[in-house]
Amino acid sequence: MKKIIVPTDFSAYADTAADFAIKIAKEMEAEVHFLHIFSAPVNWKELRPEQEDLYPEIKKNFHNANSSLDHLTKKANEVGVKAERTMLFNEGRNAIDQHINEGIYELVVIGSHGTSGIADVMGSNAQMVIRNSQAPVLVVKNGNKFEDIGKMVYASDFETESFKAFPVVYDLWQLLGTNQLELLYVNTPGNFLETAEIEDLVGEFKKEFPSVEMNVKHYDSLDVERGIVQYAEHNKSSLIALVTHGRRGVNRWFTPSVAENVVNHATVPVLSIKV
Asked: How is the chain classified by DSSP, letter by letter?
């Protein structure tokens, strides 16, 4: 990963995500890019300096946003991380997706305010970032600390599509220096597999990555999301990774809503990877 993007509205949860992104960038020798959408009832970007004084409150908000972006950039630079900043004016939330999906970013880091749902980022629903981003998305909860990342769990159905996401998970695990990586299959009543069938799936998965030592677990639950969250809680996992797919008609494991629901209820950071 060489470029990381952080959409921010300068709230506490967004600042937590920014801190996470800076520390990840330092570990990976990557760049970090801060993105903010500034909304105003006038076209602020086109105003002449003398016209700005007609809107003192908007002018104050603009300067605060500008200063906040400068602060984040400086914070990254102080620890040796190259940083860029972008302010978009009066753009809809689709502009976030367009910016993220320019093809130059390998990771998106966004913030969430807790377990009651994903917080809004720049007045839009961050769930749509998970749903539409072509790059992996790391959702960080307010209060999460980069230094606390230890055990990491990758939830998978071990089908062929999931092979594409695992190298991203494995590289991140190695670069973050986490002490343990577990692979998880959640067995549900609606898609129940016998132990032998799960072992066959896992066996094929292991053949794709023969040099990787895998600690594979399977966990019974009423649904996939509930099983992932419960397993992470019971086993003190400090980061959850899972794969999503944008196409219809695929295994339910691959629907973006699974990632969204896991994020809504997990208390630890969640990495969603689209394949």
From this structure: --EEEEE--SSHHHHHHHHHHHHHHHHHT-EEEEEEEE--SS-GGG--HHHHTT-HHHHHHHHHHHHHHHHHHHHHHHTT--EEEEEEES--THHHHHHHTTS--SEEEEEE-STTSPPEETTEETHHHHHH-SS-EEEEETT--GGG--EEEEE---SGGGGGTHHHHHHHHHHHT-SEEEEEEEE-GGG---HHHHHHHHHHHHHH-TTS--EEEEEE-SSHHHHHHHHHHHTT-SEEEEEE--STTS-GGGSHHHHHHHHHH-SS-EEEEE-
